[in-house]
């Protein structure tokens, strides 16, 4: 019976594809380069998704090219994993070490710096660990651990989680040995902020999501990131990477590059610059520069002699 | 005074988001769940009838397998369907990942055991003498099956409802295989009521989440009403 059902499910899938024209996007080999009518699958992080920035960016892009952008919100780790499996065409993430790994493995090509914001350490107004106004984020993390004040960790391999673990590393404390005050919630940024409000806990948040949700939260910024002149360690750069068509020949590479071109170009960058929540700018564009930084395109420690992917970028 | 405010309810202006967004979410939810349940019903009823009528060794075991399937965790089903439809999976060439079709597949797998199990119980409970009488009157197997279905129609309606309830209210699998996608124009592609509630709750917009939750409850009630009505309107004996 299970066999029968499995066959049925397979038949169902086949039938629904045959019956529903246009839902299967198979190969998109450059057939003269027309991308109209295609669908771009973008995996991105909860911070760009939940703040509403993506809708702002995607609508004009869709209109211009007559395409559809399907944005799937995942943590950075999951977004890259989805791309590794060839289930998305382009990723917008914020953990350079993970992005480098992704490119080194050959899954990603043509990375660009896109924008940045920063991380902030937020917590309840009573500030039990006494870290308010601190300049040194590593010292504040030490103070939190020292006083065993409640701390909410994303625990989902996202960019923010990766950054948080880096900060604990800096303190030299082992996360595995933390007591009950350290709660891994395994959820997106918004969820973690809600949880921190309920538990009256500290958490590391990207500034954008915090500002966007400020009204619903009972949390204050105790340690500022570089945007407000705080610790440089809390910088949070976002990158965008196309999935390598040499690995997954079915990905919409032309469309992915058109998208990257659009959001790293003047128009997309201006949209990012002007996007605000509660009257505050959430993200700072970073792709336009007099002096393009070559390192944005390649993984750390890369040199041309590796015989890796050729990183010549020839998009308009 | 109080009654008045309840009757009038929240004005449209106070509604926290756009109607077309909510509407598209409702449409996607219904589209996915109704198709999944319809396919499950087509698949499950014959199985329930066959198992209910036949006497064979292992019937007890098969029944318990079906009943176990009722409690299959939706997240696990979602994961298995994702692995199947991912570009690395056996159905990868169909390009189904993050589509409504993939969501239908996972809800089909979730609803089928429920519909089969509850129908089987209903069919088994139809008196054997009804069947004997039908045979005695020279009925073919098909006639007997029809009579049985007619006798067990409430049970079968309940089964379909239970399957629908299971499908429309689950969040785990549709989140994994559908990806909770809404277009930049504010229309849902694979966002259902449950995943939208999850997203709104994650964003701390509890009021919006509550409104969506209320819509979901109303939807389930309405569907229940319709199915019960259909079940009771089917004629009696000829």
Automatic annotation (TrEMBL), chain A:
It comes from Haloterrigena alkaliphila. PANTHER family: EXTRACELLULAR TUNGSTATE BINDING PROTEIN (PTHR37945). It comes from the Archaea. This is Substrate-binding domain-containing protein. Residues 39-267 form the PBP domain.
UniProtKB/TrEMBL annotation, chain B:
Gene3D superfamilies: MetI-like. The keyword Transport applies. SUPFAM superfamilies: MetI-like. GO terms for biological process: transmembrane transport. One of its GO terms (cellular component) is plasma membrane. Residues 26-227 form the ABC transmembrane type-1 domain. It is a multi-pass membrane protein. The chain crosses the membrane at residues 21-54, 61-84, 104-123, 209-228. It is found in: Cell membrane; Membrane. InterPro entries: ABC_perm_TupB-like (IPR049783), MetI-like (IPR000515), MetI-like_sf (IPR035906). Keywords: Membrane, Transmembrane, Transmembrane helix, Transport. The keyword Transmembrane helix applies. Belongs to the binding-protein-dependent transport system permease family. This is ABC transporter permease. It comes from Haloterrigena alkaliphila.
């Amino acid at each position: 019976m299970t066999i029968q059902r499995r066959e049925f499910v397979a038949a169902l899938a086949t039938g629904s594809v045959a019956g529903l024209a246009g839902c299967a996007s198979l190969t998109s080999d450059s057939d003269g380069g027309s991308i109209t009518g295609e669908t771009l699958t973008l995996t991105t992080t909860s911070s760009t998704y939940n703040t509403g920035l993506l809708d702002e960016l995607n609508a004009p892009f869709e209109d211009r090219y007559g395409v559809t952008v399907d944005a799937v919100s995942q943590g950075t780790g999951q977004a890259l994993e989805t791309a590794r499996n060839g289930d998305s065409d382009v990723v917008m993430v914020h953990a350079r070490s993970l992005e480098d790994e992704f490119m080194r493995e050959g899954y990603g090509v043509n990375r660009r710096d896109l924008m940045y914001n920063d991380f902030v350490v937020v917590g309840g107004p009573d500030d039990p660990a006494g870290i308010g106004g601190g300049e040194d984020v590593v010292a504040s993390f030490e103070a939190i651990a020292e006083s065993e004040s409640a701390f909410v960790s994303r625990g989902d391999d996202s960019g923010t989680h990766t950054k948080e673990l880096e900060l604990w590393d800096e303190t030299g404390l082992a996360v595995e040995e933390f007591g009950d005050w350290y709660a891994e919630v395994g959820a997106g940024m918004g969820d973690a902020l809600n949880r921190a409000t309920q538990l009256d806990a500290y958490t590391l948040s990207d500034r954008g999501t915090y500002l966007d949700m400020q009204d619903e939260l009972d949390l204050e910024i105790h340690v500022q990131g570089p945007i407000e002149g705080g610790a440089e360690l809390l910088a949070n750069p976002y990158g965008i990477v196309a999935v390598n068509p040499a690995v997954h020949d079915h990905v919409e590479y032309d469309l992915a590059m058109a998208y990257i071109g659009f959001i790293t170009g003047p128009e997309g960058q201006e949209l990012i610059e002007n996007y605000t929540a509660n009257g505050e700018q959430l993200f700072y564009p970073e792709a336009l520069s007099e002096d393009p930084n070559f390192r944005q395109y390649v993984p750390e420690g890369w040199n041309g002699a590796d015989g890796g992917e050729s990183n010549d970028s020839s998009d308009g | 005074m109080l009654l008045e405010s309840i009757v009038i309810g929240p004005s449209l202006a106070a509604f926290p988001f756009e109607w077309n967004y909510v509407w598209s979410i409702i449409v996607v939810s219904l589209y996915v769940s109704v198709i999944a349940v319809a396919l499950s019903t087509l698949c499950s009823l014959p199985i329930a009838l066959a198992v209910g009528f036949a006497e064979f060794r292992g019937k007890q075991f098969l029944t318990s397998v079906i009943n176990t399937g009722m409690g299959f965790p939706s997240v696990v089903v979602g994961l298995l369907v994702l692995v199947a439809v991912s570009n690395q999976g056996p159905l990868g060439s169909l390009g189904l990942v993050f589509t409504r079709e993939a969501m239908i597949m996972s809800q089909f797998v979730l609803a089928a055991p429920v519909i089969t199990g509850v129908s089987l119980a209903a069919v088994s409970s139809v008196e054997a003498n009804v069947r004997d009488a039908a045979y005695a009157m020279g009925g073919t197997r098909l006639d007997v099956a029809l009579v049985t279905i007619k006798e067990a129609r409430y049970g079968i309606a309940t089964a379909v409802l239970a399957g629908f309830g299971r499908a429309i209210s689950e969040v785990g699998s549709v989140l994994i295989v559908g990806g909770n996608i809404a277009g930049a124009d504010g229309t849902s592609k694979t966002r259902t009521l449950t995943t939208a509630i999850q997203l709104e709750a994650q964003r701390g917009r509890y009021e919006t989440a509550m409104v969506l939750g209320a819509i979901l409850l109303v939807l389930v009630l309405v569907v229940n009403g319709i199915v019960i009505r259909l079940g009771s309107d089917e004629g009696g004996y000829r």
